[in-house]
Amino acid sequence: MTFPRLLLLLPLWFPFTVASAQDKVPFVLDWATHSRSAIDLSRFLDAPAGRAGFVRPKGEHFVDGEGTRIRLWGVNLGGPSCFPSHEDAEKLAESLARLGINCVRFHGLDSNWGISSIDRSGGDTSRLDETSLERFDYLFDQLRRRGIYGNINLNVFRTYGDEDGLPDPQDLGLAKWATHFYPRIIELEEKYAVDLLTHVNRYTGKSYANDPAVLVVEIVNENSLVEGWLNGKLVGHDDNSGDTWSPLPTEYAKELNRQFNAWLIENRSAEQRERFRSDADLAANAPLVLLAPSQFSSATAERFATDQEFVVDTERSFLRRMKTLIKDEVGLKSMLIGDADHNDSVNGFPHMINNALFDYADGHGYWQHPSIGKITRTKNDPMVNDPSDSTMVQFARAPIVGKPFVISETNHPYPHRYAVEGIPLLTAYAMLQDWDGVFFHEFGRAVYDNPDAIGRNGWFNLSTDPIKVAELMCSALMWHRGDVQSAKQLIVRQHTVDEIMANSRMPSWEHRPFFDDAFAKTLPLVHRTRWRLVEKPVKAEYPPSPGINDIVSDTEQLRWQGADKNRGRVTIDTPKVQATIGFQRDAEHRSYPGIRHLSVDVKNDFATVILTSLDDQPIASSKKLLLFVGDRSANEDLTWEDDFQTVANWGNGPVAIRPLQGKISLWGLQSGGPLTTTVLGSLGQPTDETWTTYAKDGGWHVLLGNPVGSMAILER
User: Which residues constitute the signal peptide according to the record (predicted)?
Assistant: First the structure.
């Protein structure tokens, strides 16, 4: 019988019981009407990008050529999305500007599918595709004209061809580990960097090495030889699938071990080398092989330190070589970084030390990144219930004293049931930490493709998700205006190189992300934190743990409550923005207390409500406010297996939202006229619809749910 099986295909909208059909309502993003939006954030952009000269680091922040601080609010464009037609490039640039985006990270110009900057027609990857580059040139110029900078990634999705002069290129996958040491691959990387950065844009008349609209160039994307070693990816395998994280094929592992033995001759005595051979039961003068993770615990401290030093040195040598090429020989005038901190399941600090060679520190991180492929699985836990492991805490390990910090990849990937918490939470705490940039991954092509559904495997696609796009608008206001104060106190974590290296032997999962057990994981939700290297060990003296029950920032503007009872809620309480994010009722099913200007009483169990000023005045005196109310968004026919973690049916759409039902109340508004509402369309287009408002008990109250919407303008 099939009937019991149908009961297992529960819809996305299931909170504790199956939601009724009317709970989900189609709410498609119509990008063709974006120009009619009442929310135009292009006023925060300084056009054209680069007008005031090259952006550079100054202390822990970025400044333009005039010395004015610049903070990055960005998105990624992935692979073929970097090469739209001219017409589509204009649409995309215009929409991104209206959303307040001031930088685009071009992530995958070297893509191995669809349109690419690499001409693969000859079976190799050593030549640029001039037709594709013309499209990229036009997009770059359209963005530049509107005040949007570019972040150029050099190595992301590159695979190699049979004519590239490499053994078994099909087994390399993305060559994550070989990029750092294999001579022929490094030659190809160098040629690509030179060719792309010296290429003269047909529309700007400048090379990418000499254009102030280029904010930064990134050398590699999540390629760490240290990570590869710690995760056992450097042991040779001949049965590779050739995917993103494939281990080294045997021929490449042999070359790495050849380099290891040559390094040992230069850096370790003959007596040490023979001692290593004896410990490994090898004959005299036999070549040594890098330790595998299964050997870490039994290896002597001397041997473990030796292998790790070689891996770290090899990675650093590659980064230095590329830095010399790009900055000194090519003459790049923009900023340069090597790679991002991106894997909190291993000790990432040796990798971060290597990347301290560059202009700023970078981080990547996702809340419960799905297991992707033929089957999509995601844990579907709310982040508000796990502050200690939140993405903000994970990111907080990477910022270095004296350098800016940027998050260049993050998302609550689709179809996570609690994704509505992600964007505003990250924005608020990034401001508390006084970080310098946030890039959401990735924007997608919906502006010109105009689909009515979230496409299959669109885990990261923002431009088809009406809730995330609306939150981008609200959060951009908060970010550009600096509505959330940076924390008053800075906590500096100090470590020696030896301490950091020794931490690689610690059980990663128990000690992540800081590998400093004296430092409470939730402290970054209260104070700013950075780390630095010191020559001698320093006894740590940190503030006490704030726990997870009631975490209040030292500015008192951010408050994280209820995680200890799995009813987490975060509030943002500032003069120009008020928000409540997460569960809207406590463990006793009572509505959480309101904040200064906002209280929420809705039937929805989990939601985000944001009230923000549109005229840049404090909410108390503002004449024009923007209200966002959001629960979930997904394809209308998306279904889950009974574990509520495995997608059973991706669905064909249309994309739908679960509207909020109930009321929100505004308090402490200065005297003015009646409160009127204009319900907005999915991109902020004004409609003729309104939400009912009434005054009572000294406040104004707004009834939600009919008509359906996620945003409204409130005027007095």
Answer: 1-21
Which residues, given as ranges, of the chain have pLDDT below 50? 1-22
Residue 322 burial (10 A CB sphere; 0-12, 13-18, 19+): buried
Torsion of CA 49, 51, 52, 57, to 10 degrees: 20
Per-residue tokens: 633: 């968004």
Contact of 196 with 208, CB cutoff 8 Å? yes
Which run of H or E residues covers position 365? Answer: strand 361-366
Give one word for 242, left, alpha or beta, with left for phi > 0 and alpha for psi -120 to 50. left
Q: Which residues contact 518 (CB under 8 A, 6 or more apart)?
A: 540, 542
Predicted TM-score (pTM) of the model is 0.95
Long-range contact pairs involving 87-92 (C-beta distance under 8 Å, separation at least 24): 87/448, 88/445, 88/447, 88/448, 89/135, 89/138, 89/139, 89/142, 90/142, 91/31, 91/447, 91/448, 92/139, 92/142, 92/447, 92/448
Do residues 383 and 390 lie in contact, with contact meaning Cβ atoms separated by under 8 Å?
yes
One-letter identity of residue 416: H
Query: What's at 420, amino acid-wise?
Result: V
Q: 385 and 548 in contact (C-beta within 8 Å)?
A: no
Residue 575 in contact with residue 612, Cβ under 8 Å? no
What gap in Å lies between CA 287 and CA 282, rounded to an integer?
8
Q: Which two tokens stand for residue 154?
A: 């050099």
Q: pLDDT digit string (tens) for 143-158?
A: 999 999 999 999 999 9
Per-residue confidence (pLDDT) for residue 237, from 0 to 100: 87
In order of 146, 262, 413, 711, the CA distances from 39 in angstroms are: 16, 61, 25, 11
| C-alpha to C-alpha distance for 366 and 142, rounded to whole angstroms | 30
Element (H, E) at 528: strand 528-533
Token pair of 29, please? Answer: 């993003």
pLDDT in tens, 365-384: 999 999 988 899 999 999 99
For residue range 384-429, what is the model confidence (pLDDT) as tens digits? Answer: 999 999 999 999 999 999 999 999 999 999 999 999 999 999 999 9
Q: Which are the contacts of 98, defined by CB distance < 8 A and separation ≥ 6?
A: 34, 35, 37, 39, 40, 41, 42
Q: What amino acid is encoded at 278 in this protein? A: S
**Cα pseudo-dihedral 124, 128, 132, 133, rounded to 10:** 160
- CA separation for the pair 167, 174 (Å, rounded): 14
Q: Are β-strands 699-704 and 662-666 bridged in parallel, bridged antiparallel, or unpaired?
A: antiparallel
Whether the CB-CB separation of 681 and 620 falls below 8 Å is answered with no
